[in-house]
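Below is a filled-in request sheet from our internal design queue. Each sheet records the structural input a requester submitted and the sequence that came back. We keep these sheets so that new team members can see what a complete request looks like end to end.

REQUESTER: design group, bay 2
PRIORITY: normal
MODE: inverse folding
CHAIN LENGTH: 149
BACKBONE (tokenized):
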């Protein structure tokens, strides 16, 4: 990855994001990503090595199904609020926060938590997670990866 690509990702990551507050909004966002799934999305589990190539359409669709199920099961609220996107209509970067490691995911913090997962059209850079993935999350991620390799 070139320095210019890394800088573009970092700038996009620090850009303006919309909070996906309602579960219906999340479903609508997933529909947009699903229709744009073919070879254009990098799926990055923060704390693991960033991917070097975009995921296949099948991998994106599987990830969207699995992450949706995980969020609905483990984020015990009647609203979403832990997914952020740069655009609901034409997303290029989506941050998904882990329900068990939220910290201060909205508002101001000198040290905001990193998301658990990032979907990006730009090649992601290693975000150097402050805390490595928990054993349960690492097993979940690896099981998901092995299904498609």
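RETURNED SEQUENCE:
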């Amino acid at each position: 990855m070139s320095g210019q690509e890394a800088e573009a990702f970092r700038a996009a990551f620090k850009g303006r994001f919309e909070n996906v507050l309602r579960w219906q909004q999340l479903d609508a966002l997933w529909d947009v990503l699903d229709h744009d799934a073919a070879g254009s999305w990098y799926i990055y589990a923060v704390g693991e090595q960033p991917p070097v190539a975009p995921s296949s359409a099948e991998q994106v669709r599987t990830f969207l199904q699995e992450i949706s199920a995980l969020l609905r099961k483990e984020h015990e609220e009647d609203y979403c609020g832990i997914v952020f996107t740069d655009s609901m209509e034409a997303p290029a970067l989506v941050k998904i926060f882990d329900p068990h490691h939220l910290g201060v995911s909205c508002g101001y913090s000198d040290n905001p938590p990193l998301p658990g997962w990032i979907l990006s059209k730009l090649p992601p850079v290693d975000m150097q997670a402050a805390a490595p993935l928990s054993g349960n999350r690492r097993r979940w991620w690896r099981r998901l990866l092995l299904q498609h390799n």
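SHEET NOTES:
- The longest strand covers residues 42-45.
- The chain has one domain: 3-146.
FILED BY: M.R.
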